[in-house]
Structure formats: structure tokens, C-alpha cells
Amino acid sequence: MIGSSYGNLASSGVSAFSFGNALQFDATNDFINRTSSLDLLNGTCTFGFWFKRLGVCNQTIKSNDVSSFYAGTQGSSNGYRFRWTGAELNFTYSPGWGIGNWYCIIFSKTTSNIKIFVNGSEEVNQAYAMSDFGTGRELRLTRTFGSGGFVADQFFIVPSVEITSTEATALYNGGEGAYVSEAIGTPSLLINFNQNSPDGTATDESGNGYDFTLNNFDTSTCWIAH
Question: What's the CA gap between 201 and 212, in Å, rounded?
Fold first, then answer.
């Protein structure tokens, strides 16, 4: 469970950290999006988010063209899926996705390889060819398929960085969470979902202005505390 301390990073001298609020997605049509931001995923980069399932569903980062980019979990199969302008990679997450538990999922890619980490553990490290998308594509965080909603926190993109298992473990921090900038590198997009009702924007805290728009949410109830 995400908490308010650095846990096993406390000895590093880093100050206490808390994710604050989170954003709850319903079981039907909630999504956040921004246009013209997928260029942040070109080349080598690392991206991911924290999520907590409220039912059996998929949590997904995707482009507006689903055949081009999709990275997320698979609900009923206890797996995850990654697709980049072509062949789809499907993997089984053998512990399974529990309902009501927080997970940190990280994707780290180059133009020729993809790594996937869950809760600090490297689950996938595989050759996979990826060309650049360029600019101008919509980027979404959403629920796809399944019967339940989910809660999301700390959605980030760190360009030009392929992380190690040590860095992924540091970000997970025993379930307590850590600053992306301290564990991985400076993010170009960082949404900690610390807004409050009735805000309709998920604010980018990187300073680069990549705010995301809430779509179809009940903004009086969707911002929740941990």
C-alpha cells in the first residue's frame, strides 16, 4: 500500500514523500487525455504509473490509434500487453492482479528492446523493434474492458532513460513509493493526481505543461485520498 514515508530509502537522507490524492476511474467510460504528447515516448524512455484495481479490468496507456501503441494490464488473464506499431507482446503475470491492492507497473524501452517491471521486479526483458511515432498523437490513460474501475497515481514519462532493476526497485520502495526524479531521473511528464474536486484537469507537475483533461468523470467524487 502506498504510504507517506520513504521506507527503505530513508537512510539516503531523502525527505518524506506522499502521493497525496489519487484519481478514481469508473467501470464504464472515464479517461484522461492530452493531444500531441506521444513524442515523449520516442526513442529510449521509461514510463509507468501506479494503479489499484476495483474490479477485473485493464488499466491502459494508449494512443488514439489502438493499433499503434498500447501498454497496460490484461484483466481476466492476469497478464500484461505491449503493442508498438505492429506485433503485440502478451505476458502472464504469475502472481496475478489482486483487487484492492496497489501495483507499480513500469515500461522501459529502447528502439530494439522492452523491459517491464511490476512492483520493482523485472518481469520482461525482450528484443522488440520500435520506430518513432513522431508528434501529434493523442495519449490516454484509461480503463479498457472488464467489469470494474481502478484508481491511478503517479503517471510519469522519463525520456532518454532505460532503467535498471535497481532503479525500478527504488521507485517501488517496498510499496511506499518514491520520487521519480530520485529513483529514475527527471521526468518530462509527471502527474501525481493531487488535485481536488471539482477540478477537471490532471496537472503535470514536471513544469512542462503536459496537463491531461478529465473526460466523463464525476469531478465531485473522483479525487480521493489514499
Answer: 6
Peptide bond into 198 cis (omega under 30): yes
Q: Average pLDDT for residues 26-41, to the nearest whole number?
A: 88
Domains of the chain: 7-215 (2.60.120.200)
Mean residue pLDDT across the chain: 87
**DSSP string across 128-196:** -------S---EEEEEEEES--EEEEEEEEEET----HHHHHHHHGGGT---HHHHT---SEEE-----
Q: Are 24 and 224 in contact (CB under 8 A)?
A: yes
pLDDT, residue 9, reads 33
User: Which one, of 39, 50, 84, lies nearest residue 66 by Cα?
Assistant: 84
The C-alpha cell that represents 91 in the structure block: 505476458
Whether the predicted pLDDT of 186 surpasses 50: yes
Identify the sign of the CA torsion 36, 22, 26, 213.
Answer: negative
DSSP 16: P
Contact between 85 and 69 (Cβ < 8 Å): yes
Strands 79-84 and 69-74: antiparallel
Helix then strand count (H, E) for the chain reads: 2, 16
Decide if 175 contacts 102 (C-beta within 8 A): yes
Distance CA 16, CA 5 (A): 5
Distance CA 216, CA 32 (A): 9
How confident is the model over 172-191, as a mean pLDDT?
93
